[in-house]
Amino acid sequence: MLEEVCIEVNGQRQTDMVEPRLLLVHYIREERRLTGTHIGCDTGHCGACTVWLNGDAVKSCTILAVQAHRMSVTTVEGLASDGITPVQESFQQHHGLQCGFCTPGILMTVHAFLHANPHPSREDILRILKGHLCRCTGYQSIVESVENGLSR
Amino acid sequence: MIPASFSYVRVSSALEAAVCLADHTEGSAALLAGGNTLLPMMKLRVIRPRVLVDIGCVKELSYIIFDGDWVKIGSLTRLHEIENSPLVRSRLPLLAEAAANVGDIQVRNRATLGGALATGDAASDLCAVVLALEGVLVAQDQVRARQVSAGSFFEDERGTLLEPAEIIREICFRPHDDEVWSFERFQLQSRSQPIVGVAIQNSANRVAVALSCMGTTPLRAKRCESAFQDGASAAESAHLIVHDVSPADDFNASASYRLHLARSMLQRLLPTHRTGSAKT
Q1: Over the range B29-42, which residues count as b (16 or more CB within 10 Å of their CB) and which as e?
Q2: Which of A50, B169, B225, B253 could form a disulfide with B138 if both were Cys (CB 3.0 to 4.6 A apart)?
Q3: What's the ipTM?
Q4: Any chain A CB within 8 A of the CB of B5?
Q5: Closest to B8 (Cβ–Cβ): which among A62, A66, A128?
Q6: Do the beta carbons of residue A58 and residue A52 sit within 8 Å?
Q7: What is the mean pLDDT of each run of 10 residues along chain B (280 residues)?
Q8: Quick one: which of B215, B242, B197 has its CA closest to B98?
Q9: Is the CB of residue B4 less than 8 Å away from at least one CB of chain A?
């Protein structure tokens, strides 16, 4: 039996009828056609699907769309209202990505953290990357991209 | 990746949840709180509940208060709130530390204390810490509420003492403001579970030693505790855990490795608990 959900994504509200078992990540990608949020694993470990749910960074593959009813979701497409953020620009300039598959998830966690902690230490940055797996960079350039994005 | 089909009910109170559970035969309905344990298992189709009762919006069970005697935490309080709560950090620092070390930020934004306890998972550091703090759980069904000490709550085989139609309401702790505590886990970064976790809490003139991953349930090393309190050395006391534990031989580590590791960690951590000196 289908359930009605009304979810605000990047400021846009929409009502849909969905199966209860529809994962939020599939809702975002397929119902809302926002494909910046990625699926990198089957087990909830990689973090590529990270979005904000009412401002909190969460793994959208481990949330059902029905759980987000009447809530606000922000995806990587909604990080900057115009252009890209200083941290996103820093990722471009400091090789914070290669294939880019893990990057949207990392950007969501980093930006959420920076809202409350605008001056993280290197240890803080490493700690918040715990929920993210990257197969390309070895993480060093990701940390540097975040650090360099702070001083902009 | 995709769970088997199920019916979905969203409830807004603990009583509604208990009524839903009672309406369904044992095992066919599951409570959905944070979902970090339930949903991955459903996505792998290891479990297939027919009904999911979503308690994520039950606001009445999300709180952290101190009533003068007890710190009371609602079962649906998220771990990131517990980790960052000034009240928990000052009165139950061991709990704040354990909460801060669960999973990652995304997990802690969803996971709840009650959800962690309801799993009764031997690998759960939170369960071990609630044991060391001698927490008291309050569980309710649609008729009445009851109190269960953490020590009795984690039972073998069935998992926990929670009845099929019960929901955990809150967990209560005596505060431990200035008392010595230790929390340490040994975990390979590449694995999602620790190999051994150790939680030690002083209170008055007693020491509680709780271990994760050292049996089929989270457990207290009672013989180690009483020997240490009676004056045995840290090494002697640590050696005695062999009587309290039955660690698994599994993919992550052998039983003998776990035993050796737990003894080493206790030998190193226990001495600070003798003098009652400030926690470093």
Answers
A1: bbbbbbbbbbbbeb
A2: B169
A3: 0.96
A4: yes
A5: A66
A6: yes
A7: 96 96 88 96 96 96 97 98 98 97 96 95 95 97 95 82 93 93 90 91 92 95 96 96 94 94 97 64
A8: B197
A9: yes
